[in-house]
Protein backbone atom coordinates (compact mmCIF):
# COMPACT_ATOMS: atom_id res chain seq x y z
CA UNK A 1 0.00 0.00 0.00
CA UNK A 2 1.37 3.40 -1.02
CA UNK A 3 1.41 5.78 1.95
CA UNK A 4 2.97 8.83 0.30
CA UNK A 5 4.00 10.05 -3.16
CA UNK A 6 6.36 12.96 -3.77
CA UNK A 7 6.45 14.22 -7.34
CA UNK A 8 9.20 16.41 -8.87
CA UNK A 9 10.04 18.35 -5.69
CA UNK A 10 12.35 21.35 -6.05
CA UNK A 11 13.63 23.70 -3.33
CA UNK A 12 15.71 26.82 -3.95
CA UNK A 13 18.24 28.31 -1.53
CA UNK A 14 17.85 32.01 -0.60
CA UNK A 15 20.46 33.06 -3.19
CA UNK A 16 18.60 31.25 -5.98
CA UNK A 17 20.63 28.08 -6.36
CA UNK A 18 18.58 24.84 -6.10
CA UNK A 19 19.14 22.80 -2.94
CA UNK A 20 17.71 19.86 -4.89
CA UNK A 21 15.47 19.60 -7.94
CA UNK A 22 13.01 17.18 -9.55
CA UNK A 23 13.07 14.75 -6.61
CA UNK A 24 10.41 12.02 -6.63
CA UNK A 25 9.85 9.37 -3.95
CA UNK A 26 7.22 6.79 -3.04
CA UNK A 27 6.90 5.46 0.53
CA UNK A 28 5.18 2.18 1.35
CA UNK A 29 4.83 -0.01 4.46
CA UNK A 30 8.55 -0.53 4.87
CA UNK A 31 11.50 1.22 6.46
CA UNK A 32 13.25 3.49 3.99
CA UNK A 33 16.58 4.98 5.10
CA UNK A 34 17.45 8.38 3.65
CA UNK A 35 21.17 9.12 3.70
CA UNK A 36 23.43 11.86 2.30
CA UNK A 37 25.97 14.49 3.18
CA UNK A 38 25.25 17.25 5.69
CA UNK A 39 23.61 20.07 3.77
CA UNK A 40 22.29 17.91 0.93
CA UNK A 41 18.71 18.72 1.97
CA UNK A 42 17.55 15.61 3.86
CA UNK A 43 15.84 17.55 6.67
CA UNK A 44 14.23 19.92 4.17
CA UNK A 45 12.90 16.94 2.23
CA UNK A 46 11.54 15.44 5.46
CA UNK A 47 9.73 18.70 6.23
CA UNK A 48 8.22 18.74 2.73
CA UNK A 49 6.99 15.15 3.03
CA UNK A 50 5.46 15.77 6.45
CA UNK A 51 3.71 18.96 5.34
CA UNK A 52 5.69 21.20 7.69
CA UNK A 53 7.07 23.03 4.64
CA UNK A 54 5.92 23.58 1.06
CA UNK A 55 8.12 22.92 -2.02
CA UNK A 56 8.98 25.65 -4.50
CA UNK A 57 7.97 23.22 -7.25
CA UNK A 58 6.28 19.80 -7.27
CA UNK A 59 3.73 18.28 -4.93
CA UNK A 60 3.30 15.67 -2.17
CA UNK A 61 0.29 13.32 -2.10
CA UNK A 62 -0.34 11.80 1.35
CA UNK A 63 -2.52 8.70 1.66
CA UNK A 64 -2.06 8.20 5.42
CA UNK A 65 -1.61 9.95 8.76
CA UNK A 66 1.98 11.03 9.41
CA UNK A 67 3.93 11.48 12.65
CA UNK A 68 7.02 13.65 12.21
CA UNK A 69 10.06 13.91 14.48
CA UNK A 70 12.20 16.84 13.24
CA UNK A 71 15.95 16.87 13.67
CA UNK A 72 16.10 20.20 15.50
CA UNK A 73 13.80 21.01 18.40
CA UNK A 74 12.91 24.64 19.06
CA UNK A 75 12.04 25.90 22.54
CA UNK A 76 8.38 26.45 21.64
CA UNK A 77 8.07 22.73 20.83
CA UNK A 78 9.44 21.84 24.27
CA UNK A 79 7.10 24.22 26.07
CA UNK A 80 4.10 22.86 24.18
CA UNK A 81 4.76 19.37 25.63
CA UNK A 82 4.31 20.69 29.19
CA UNK A 83 4.49 17.75 31.67
CA UNK A 84 5.21 14.13 30.78
CA UNK A 85 1.65 13.14 31.71
CA UNK A 86 0.16 15.91 29.55
CA UNK A 87 2.41 14.95 26.64
CA UNK A 88 1.12 11.38 26.93
CA UNK A 89 -2.50 12.56 27.20
CA UNK A 90 -3.09 10.92 30.61
CA UNK A 91 -2.96 13.98 32.86
CA UNK A 92 -6.75 14.22 33.16
CA UNK A 93 -7.08 10.58 34.19
CA UNK A 94 -4.29 10.85 36.78
CA UNK A 95 -5.86 13.95 38.34
CA UNK A 96 -9.26 12.24 38.46
CA UNK A 97 -7.71 9.22 40.22
CA UNK A 98 -6.11 11.54 42.78
CA UNK A 99 -9.45 13.24 43.47
CA UNK A 100 -11.23 9.89 43.83
CA UNK A 101 -8.53 8.69 46.24
CA UNK A 102 -9.14 11.88 48.25
CA UNK A 103 -12.85 11.04 48.49
CA UNK A 104 -14.43 12.53 45.35
CA UNK A 105 -17.70 10.96 44.17
CA UNK A 106 -18.01 13.20 41.11
CA UNK A 107 -19.37 11.25 38.11
CA UNK A 108 -17.06 13.22 35.79
CA UNK A 109 -14.02 11.86 37.63
CA UNK A 110 -15.20 8.26 37.23
CA UNK A 111 -15.90 8.87 33.55
CA UNK A 112 -12.42 10.35 33.12
CA UNK A 113 -10.87 7.23 34.66
CA UNK A 114 -12.99 4.73 32.73
CA UNK A 115 -11.30 1.34 33.05
CA UNK A 116 -7.81 2.78 33.60
CA UNK A 117 -7.68 2.12 37.35
CA UNK A 118 -4.21 0.61 37.02
CA UNK A 119 -2.86 3.58 35.04
CA UNK A 120 -0.36 4.80 37.72
CA UNK A 121 1.27 1.37 37.99
CA UNK A 122 1.21 0.77 34.23
CA UNK A 123 2.56 4.25 33.54
CA UNK A 124 5.32 3.76 36.07
CA UNK A 125 6.39 0.56 34.28
CA UNK A 126 6.29 2.26 30.89
CA UNK A 127 8.36 5.22 32.10
CA UNK A 128 10.90 2.84 33.61
CA UNK A 129 11.14 0.93 30.32
CA UNK A 130 11.74 4.22 28.52
CA UNK A 131 14.39 5.30 31.00
CA UNK A 132 12.32 8.34 31.99
CA UNK A 133 11.80 9.80 35.48
CA UNK A 134 9.09 7.99 37.43
CA UNK A 135 7.14 11.20 38.17
CA UNK A 136 4.69 11.78 35.27
CA UNK A 137 4.13 15.31 36.51
CA UNK A 138 7.72 16.32 35.72
CA UNK A 139 8.11 19.15 33.22
CA UNK A 140 9.36 18.12 29.78
CA UNK A 141 11.73 21.09 29.77
CA UNK A 142 13.60 19.52 32.72
CA UNK A 143 14.29 16.27 30.83
CA UNK A 144 17.71 15.54 29.42
CA UNK A 145 18.20 15.51 25.66
CA UNK A 146 18.09 11.72 25.57
CA UNK A 147 15.01 11.50 27.82
CA UNK A 148 13.15 14.05 25.73
CA UNK A 149 14.04 12.24 22.52
CA UNK A 150 12.73 8.94 23.93
CA UNK A 151 9.47 10.61 25.00
CA UNK A 152 8.91 12.23 21.61
CA UNK A 153 9.73 8.97 19.82
CA UNK A 154 7.28 7.10 22.05
CA UNK A 155 4.57 9.62 21.13
CA UNK A 156 5.27 8.88 17.46
CA UNK A 157 5.18 5.10 17.83
CA UNK A 158 2.01 5.05 19.95
CA UNK A 159 0.13 7.49 17.67
CA UNK A 160 -2.38 6.41 15.02
CA UNK A 161 0.03 7.40 12.24
CA UNK A 162 0.71 4.83 9.54
CA UNK A 163 3.85 6.65 8.37
CA UNK A 164 6.63 7.93 10.64
CA UNK A 165 9.21 10.44 9.42
CA UNK A 166 12.12 10.30 11.86
CA UNK A 167 14.96 12.78 11.30
CA UNK A 168 18.11 11.71 13.19
CA UNK A 169 16.08 9.95 15.93
CA UNK A 170 19.13 8.42 17.65
CA UNK A 171 20.65 11.82 18.49
CA UNK A 172 21.14 12.18 22.26
CA UNK A 173 20.23 8.53 22.92
CA UNK A 174 22.55 6.33 24.97
CA UNK A 175 23.24 2.69 24.07
CA UNK A 176 20.07 1.40 25.76
CA UNK A 177 18.01 4.10 24.06
CA UNK A 178 19.35 3.16 20.64
CA UNK A 179 18.60 -0.51 21.27
CA UNK A 180 15.05 0.45 22.31
CA UNK A 181 14.66 2.54 19.15
CA UNK A 182 15.84 -0.30 16.92
CA UNK A 183 13.30 -2.61 18.55
CA UNK A 184 10.48 -0.08 18.03
CA UNK A 185 11.38 0.32 14.35
CA UNK A 186 11.43 -3.45 13.86
CA UNK A 187 8.02 -3.91 15.50
CA UNK A 188 6.25 -0.98 13.83
CA UNK A 189 3.62 -2.17 11.34
CA UNK A 190 3.47 0.95 9.17
CA UNK A 191 6.02 2.76 7.02
CA UNK A 192 9.06 4.66 8.29
CA UNK A 193 11.31 7.20 6.60
CA UNK A 194 14.49 7.05 8.66
CA UNK A 195 17.04 9.84 8.23
CA UNK A 196 20.23 8.88 9.99
CA UNK A 197 24.02 8.57 9.89
CA UNK A 198 23.92 5.89 12.62
CA UNK A 199 25.20 2.74 10.92
CA UNK A 200 23.76 0.40 13.56
CA UNK A 201 20.32 1.99 13.16
CA UNK A 202 20.49 1.82 9.36
CA UNK A 203 20.65 -1.97 9.60
CA UNK A 204 16.88 -1.87 10.23
CA UNK A 205 16.18 -0.43 6.76
CA UNK A 206 14.43 -2.35 4.00
CA UNK A 207 16.00 -0.07 1.41
CA UNK A 208 18.45 2.84 1.32
CA UNK A 209 18.01 5.97 -0.80
CA UNK A 210 20.66 8.67 -1.08
CA UNK A 211 20.03 12.37 -1.64
CA UNK A 212 22.84 14.17 -3.47
CA UNK A 213 23.34 17.02 -5.92
CA UNK A 214 22.20 14.69 -8.72
CA UNK A 215 18.91 13.79 -6.98
CA UNK A 216 17.71 10.57 -5.33
CA UNK A 217 19.33 7.19 -5.98
CA UNK A 218 18.01 3.89 -4.60
CA UNK A 219 20.33 1.20 -3.24
CA UNK A 220 19.99 -2.19 -1.59
CA UNK A 221 19.05 -3.05 1.96
CA UNK A 222 22.47 -3.46 3.53
CA UNK A 223 24.46 -0.38 4.61
CA UNK A 224 27.81 -2.11 4.07
CA UNK A 225 26.64 -3.13 0.60
CA UNK A 226 25.56 0.48 -0.02
CA UNK A 227 29.02 1.80 0.92
CA UNK A 228 30.68 -0.82 -1.29
CA UNK A 229 28.40 0.04 -4.19
CA UNK A 230 29.10 3.75 -3.70
CA UNK A 231 32.84 3.06 -3.70
CA UNK A 232 32.51 0.97 -6.87
CA UNK A 233 30.48 3.72 -8.57
CA UNK A 234 33.06 6.30 -7.55
CA UNK A 235 35.92 4.24 -8.99
CA UNK A 236 33.97 3.55 -12.20
CA UNK A 237 33.18 7.25 -12.61
CA UNK A 238 36.84 8.16 -12.04
CA UNK A 239 37.88 5.65 -14.72
CA UNK A 240 35.33 7.00 -17.21
CA UNK A 241 36.46 10.56 -16.48
CA UNK A 242 40.08 9.61 -17.08
CA UNK A 243 39.22 7.91 -20.39
CA UNK A 244 37.13 10.89 -21.51
CA UNK A 245 40.03 13.26 -20.83
CA UNK A 246 42.43 10.91 -22.65
CA UNK A 247 40.07 10.82 -25.65
CA UNK A 248 40.07 14.64 -25.84
CA UNK A 249 43.87 14.67 -25.66
CA UNK A 250 44.07 12.02 -28.42
CA UNK A 251 41.75 14.03 -30.70
CA UNK A 252 43.83 17.17 -30.11
CA UNK A 253 47.05 15.29 -30.88
CA UNK A 254 45.54 13.84 -34.07
CA UNK A 255 44.41 17.30 -35.06
CA UNK A 256 47.92 18.65 -34.47
CA UNK A 257 49.49 15.86 -36.56
CA UNK A 258 47.02 16.46 -39.42
CA UNK A 259 47.77 20.18 -39.34
CA UNK A 260 51.51 19.52 -39.50
CA UNK A 261 51.07 17.16 -42.51
CA UNK A 262 48.89 19.70 -44.29
CA UNK A 263 51.48 22.40 -43.67
CA UNK A 264 54.25 20.16 -45.10
CA UNK A 265 52.16 19.40 -48.20
CA UNK A 266 51.40 23.09 -48.67
CA UNK A 267 55.09 23.94 -48.38
CA UNK A 268 55.97 21.24 -50.96
CA UNK A 269 53.35 22.66 -53.36
CA UNK A 270 54.82 26.12 -53.03
CA UNK A 271 58.28 24.78 -53.86
CA UNK A 272 56.95 22.95 -56.94
CA UNK A 273 55.15 26.08 -58.10
CA UNK A 274 58.30 28.13 -57.56
CA UNK A 275 60.59 25.72 -59.44
CA UNK A 276 58.04 25.01 -62.21
CA UNK A 277 58.53 21.22 -61.90
CA UNK A 278 54.74 20.68 -61.99
CA UNK A 279 52.10 22.19 -64.22
CA UNK A 280 50.13 25.08 -62.76
CA UNK A 281 46.85 23.36 -63.60
CA UNK A 282 47.86 20.23 -61.65
CA UNK A 283 49.15 22.27 -58.73
CA UNK A 284 45.91 24.27 -58.57
CA UNK A 285 43.88 21.05 -58.60
CA UNK A 286 46.02 19.57 -55.80
CA UNK A 287 45.71 22.78 -53.78
CA UNK A 288 41.92 22.84 -54.09
CA UNK A 289 41.67 19.14 -53.25
CA UNK A 290 43.93 19.60 -50.19
CA UNK A 291 41.93 22.58 -48.96
CA UNK A 292 38.65 20.68 -49.42
CA UNK A 293 40.03 17.64 -47.58
CA UNK A 294 41.41 19.87 -44.80
CA UNK A 295 38.04 21.58 -44.38
CA UNK A 296 36.23 18.23 -44.19
CA UNK A 297 38.83 16.88 -41.78
CA UNK A 298 38.58 19.92 -39.50
CA UNK A 299 34.79 19.70 -39.45
CA UNK A 300 34.95 16.00 -38.53
CA UNK A 301 37.58 16.59 -35.84
CA UNK A 302 35.56 19.51 -34.46
CA UNK A 303 32.49 17.27 -34.19
CA UNK A 304 34.54 14.54 -32.49
CA UNK A 305 36.02 17.05 -30.06
CA UNK A 306 32.65 18.60 -29.20
CA UNK A 307 31.12 15.14 -28.64
CA UNK A 308 34.03 14.14 -26.37
CA UNK A 309 33.77 17.41 -24.41
CA UNK A 310 30.02 16.95 -23.98
CA UNK A 311 30.58 13.42 -22.64
CA UNK A 312 33.19 14.77 -20.23
CA UNK A 313 30.80 17.48 -19.03
CA UNK A 314 28.05 14.93 -18.37
CA UNK A 315 30.47 12.81 -16.35
CA UNK A 316 31.76 15.81 -14.39
CA UNK A 317 28.19 16.74 -13.44
CA UNK A 318 27.89 13.36 -11.73
CA UNK A 319 30.92 14.04 -9.54
CA UNK A 320 30.15 15.31 -6.03
CA UNK A 321 31.33 18.91 -6.16
CA UNK A 322 31.71 19.14 -2.38
CA UNK A 323 35.37 19.80 -1.70
CA UNK A 324 37.09 18.02 1.21
CA UNK A 325 36.53 19.93 4.44
CA UNK A 326 39.38 20.96 6.68
CA UNK A 327 39.14 21.93 10.31
CA UNK A 328 41.63 22.74 13.03
CA UNK A 329 41.41 24.15 16.54
CA UNK A 330 42.89 27.46 17.56
CA UNK A 331 46.26 27.52 19.36
CA UNK A 332 45.69 30.31 21.85
CA UNK A 333 48.15 31.25 24.57
CA UNK A 334 48.22 28.88 27.53
CA UNK A 335 47.29 30.83 30.64
CA UNK A 336 47.53 28.26 33.39
CA UNK A 337 48.41 24.61 33.88
CA UNK A 338 45.38 24.15 36.14
CA UNK A 339 42.19 25.23 34.42
CA UNK A 340 39.36 23.93 36.63
CA UNK A 341 39.00 22.71 40.21
CA UNK A 342 35.80 20.97 41.38
CA UNK A 343 35.33 20.30 45.08
CA UNK A 344 32.43 18.22 46.48
CA UNK A 345 30.13 19.54 43.79
CA UNK A 346 26.42 18.67 44.14
CA UNK A 347 23.96 19.23 41.27
CA UNK A 348 20.32 20.30 41.32
CA UNK A 349 19.40 17.75 38.64
CA UNK A 350 20.48 14.24 37.83
CA UNK A 351 21.51 11.30 39.97
CA UNK A 352 25.16 12.10 40.67
CA UNK A 353 26.92 11.94 44.03
CA UNK A 354 29.24 14.80 45.02
CA UNK A 355 32.05 15.31 42.49
CA UNK A 356 35.66 16.33 43.13
CA UNK A 357 37.93 16.69 40.09
CA UNK A 358 40.74 18.80 38.67
CA UNK A 359 41.21 19.63 34.99
CA UNK A 360 44.74 20.42 33.83
CA UNK A 361 45.93 21.88 30.56
CA UNK A 362 45.92 19.13 27.92
CA UNK A 363 43.36 16.89 29.68
CA UNK A 364 40.95 15.29 27.22
CA UNK A 365 38.05 13.93 29.26
CA UNK A 366 35.13 11.75 28.23
CA UNK A 367 32.07 12.32 30.42
CA UNK A 368 30.04 9.13 30.21
CA UNK A 369 26.79 7.98 31.72
CA UNK A 370 23.28 6.97 30.69
CA UNK A 371 20.54 9.45 29.74
CA UNK A 372 19.33 11.44 32.75
CA UNK A 373 22.37 10.98 34.98
CA UNK A 374 23.22 14.69 34.76
CA UNK A 375 25.96 15.07 32.15
CA UNK A 376 24.51 18.21 30.55
CA UNK A 377 23.60 19.58 33.98
CA UNK A 378 27.21 19.16 35.10
CA UNK A 379 28.52 21.05 32.05
CA UNK A 380 26.02 23.90 32.55
CA UNK A 381 26.91 24.07 36.24
CA UNK A 382 30.64 24.20 35.46
CA UNK A 383 29.93 27.01 33.01
CA UNK A 384 27.86 28.92 35.59
CA UNK A 385 24.55 28.75 33.74
CA UNK A 386 23.04 26.62 36.54
CA UNK A 387 23.53 27.23 40.28
CA UNK A 388 25.62 24.97 42.49
CA UNK A 389 23.61 22.88 44.94
CA UNK A 390 26.64 22.29 47.15
CA UNK A 391 30.43 22.40 46.94
CA UNK A 392 32.63 24.76 44.95
CA UNK A 393 33.91 25.38 41.43
CA UNK A 394 37.12 27.34 40.82
CA UNK A 395 37.65 28.41 37.21
CA UNK A 396 41.30 29.22 36.54
CA UNK A 397 40.70 29.81 32.84
CA UNK A 398 37.79 30.48 30.46
CA UNK A 399 35.19 27.84 29.63
CA UNK A 400 33.45 27.59 26.25
CA UNK A 401 30.29 25.52 25.92
CA UNK A 402 28.88 23.81 22.85
CA UNK A 403 25.40 22.61 23.80
CA UNK A 404 22.84 20.45 22.06
CA UNK A 405 20.45 23.14 20.78
CA UNK A 406 22.95 25.71 19.34
CA UNK A 407 21.64 28.54 21.53
CA UNK A 408 24.89 30.48 20.91
CA UNK A 409 23.64 31.34 17.41
CA UNK A 410 21.22 34.06 16.36
CA UNK A 411 19.15 32.05 13.88
CA UNK A 412 17.80 35.18 12.19
CA UNK A 413 21.30 36.50 11.44
CA UNK A 414 23.64 35.36 8.68
CA UNK A 415 26.39 32.81 9.07
CA UNK A 416 29.15 35.43 8.74
CA UNK A 417 27.41 37.83 11.16
CA UNK A 418 27.28 35.06 13.79
CA UNK A 419 30.97 34.29 13.31
CA UNK A 420 31.87 37.99 13.54
CA UNK A 421 29.99 38.31 16.84
CA UNK A 422 31.27 35.10 18.39
CA UNK A 423 34.89 35.20 17.13
CA UNK A 424 35.69 38.90 17.56
CA UNK A 425 39.48 38.35 17.49
CA UNK A 426 39.38 37.48 13.78
CA UNK A 427 38.97 39.73 10.73
CA UNK A 428 36.11 39.29 8.29
CA UNK A 429 38.53 37.88 5.69
CA UNK A 430 39.91 35.34 8.20
CA UNK A 431 36.38 34.26 9.19
CA UNK A 432 35.38 33.81 5.55
CA UNK A 433 38.44 31.60 5.06
CA UNK A 434 37.53 29.52 8.14
CA UNK A 435 33.93 29.23 6.91
CA UNK A 436 35.15 28.15 3.46
CA UNK A 437 37.25 25.39 5.06
CA UNK A 438 34.02 24.13 6.65
CA UNK A 439 32.22 24.05 3.30
CA UNK A 440 30.58 27.52 3.33
CA UNK A 441 32.11 29.23 0.33
CA UNK A 442 31.34 32.53 -1.39
CA UNK A 443 27.65 33.52 -1.14
CA UNK A 444 26.90 30.76 1.39
CA UNK A 445 28.69 32.83 4.05
CA UNK A 446 25.75 35.23 3.87
CA UNK A 447 23.13 32.50 4.28
CA UNK A 448 20.69 32.87 7.19
CA UNK A 449 21.54 30.60 10.10
CA UNK A 450 18.03 29.17 10.37
CA UNK A 451 18.31 27.69 6.86
CA UNK A 452 21.29 25.49 7.77
CA UNK A 453 20.94 21.81 8.60
CA UNK A 454 21.78 20.39 12.02
CA UNK A 455 25.09 19.02 10.78
CA UNK A 456 26.05 22.37 9.25
CA UNK A 457 25.18 24.22 12.47
CA UNK A 458 27.24 21.74 14.47
CA UNK A 459 30.30 22.25 12.26
CA UNK A 460 30.05 26.02 12.71
CA UNK A 461 29.44 25.70 16.45
CA UNK A 462 32.59 23.61 16.81
CA UNK A 463 34.51 26.20 14.80
CA UNK A 464 33.29 28.94 17.16
CA UNK A 465 34.11 27.22 20.44
CA UNK A 466 37.55 26.14 19.22
CA UNK A 467 38.57 29.61 17.99
CA UNK A 468 38.22 31.67 21.11
CA UNK A 469 40.87 34.22 22.04
CA UNK A 470 42.06 32.57 25.25
CA UNK A 471 42.93 28.94 25.88
CA UNK A 472 40.52 27.26 28.26
CA UNK A 473 38.36 24.17 28.59
CA UNK A 474 35.98 23.22 25.79
CA UNK A 475 32.71 21.78 27.13
CA UNK A 476 31.36 19.65 24.26
CA UNK A 477 27.85 18.25 24.73
CA UNK A 478 27.40 15.54 22.06
CA UNK A 479 29.15 17.47 19.25
CA UNK A 480 28.93 14.39 16.98
CA UNK A 481 25.13 14.68 16.82
CA UNK A 482 23.78 15.61 13.37
CA UNK A 483 27.15 15.00 11.65
CA UNK A 484 27.64 12.71 8.68
CA UNK A 485 30.52 10.20 8.66
CA UNK A 486 32.96 12.63 7.02
CA UNK A 487 32.03 15.37 9.48
CA UNK A 488 32.53 13.06 12.45
CA UNK A 489 35.92 11.97 11.16
CA UNK A 490 36.98 15.57 10.57
CA UNK A 491 35.91 16.70 14.05
CA UNK A 492 37.51 13.70 15.76
CA UNK A 493 40.82 14.38 14.03
CA UNK A 494 40.72 18.07 15.04
CA UNK A 495 40.02 17.19 18.69
CA UNK A 496 42.73 14.55 18.65
CA UNK A 497 45.24 17.16 17.46
CA UNK A 498 43.93 19.83 19.86
CA UNK A 499 46.64 20.89 22.32
CA UNK A 500 44.28 22.18 24.96
CA UNK A 501 41.63 20.61 27.19
CA UNK A 502 38.08 19.47 26.66
CA UNK A 503 35.28 17.63 28.45
CA UNK A 504 33.33 15.58 25.93
CA UNK A 505 29.86 14.02 26.13
CA UNK A 506 29.18 11.39 23.47
CA UNK A 507 27.50 8.00 23.24
CA UNK A 508 29.56 6.96 20.19
CA UNK A 509 32.55 5.05 21.53
CA UNK A 510 34.30 4.95 18.15
CA UNK A 511 34.08 8.74 17.96
CA UNK A 512 35.34 9.08 21.54
CA UNK A 513 38.35 6.85 20.83
CA UNK A 514 39.17 8.81 17.67
CA UNK A 515 39.15 12.09 19.65
CA UNK A 516 42.22 11.00 21.61
CA UNK A 517 40.50 10.97 25.02
CA UNK A 518 43.02 10.55 27.84
CA UNK A 519 40.66 9.93 30.78
CA UNK A 520 37.04 9.05 31.56
CA UNK A 521 34.70 10.44 34.17
CA UNK A 522 32.11 7.72 34.70
CA UNK A 523 28.88 9.27 36.03
CA UNK A 524 26.99 6.00 36.19
CA UNK A 525 28.75 4.98 39.39
UniProtKB/TrEMBL annotation:
Keyword terms, alphabetized: ATP-binding, Nucleotide-binding, Repeat
Region (Disordered): 247-279, 288-307
InterPro entries: AAA+_ATPase, ABC_transporter-like_ATP-bd, ABC_transporter-like_CS, ABCF, P-loop_NTPase
Protein biosynthesis recorded as keyword: no
Occurrences of domain ABC transporter (ranges): 4-238
GO molecular function terms attached to this record: ATP binding
Pfam families reported for this sequence: ABC_tran
Entry protein name: ABC-F family ATP-binding cassette domain-containing protein
Amino acid sequence: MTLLQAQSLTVFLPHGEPLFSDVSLTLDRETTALVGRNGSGKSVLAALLSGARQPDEGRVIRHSNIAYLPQLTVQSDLSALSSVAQALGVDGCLQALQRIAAGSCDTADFEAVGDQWDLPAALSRQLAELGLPSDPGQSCTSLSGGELTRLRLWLCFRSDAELLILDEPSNHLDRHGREWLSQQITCFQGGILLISHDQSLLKNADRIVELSHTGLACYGTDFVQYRQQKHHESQLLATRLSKAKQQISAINRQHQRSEEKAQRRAAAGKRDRHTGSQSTLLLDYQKNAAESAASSRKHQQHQQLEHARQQLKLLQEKVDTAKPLSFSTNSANKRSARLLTITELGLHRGQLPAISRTVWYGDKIHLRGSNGTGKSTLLKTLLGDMPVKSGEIHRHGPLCYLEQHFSLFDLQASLIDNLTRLCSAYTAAELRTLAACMGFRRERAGQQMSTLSGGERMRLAMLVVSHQQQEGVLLLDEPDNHLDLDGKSMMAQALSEHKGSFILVSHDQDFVDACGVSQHWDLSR
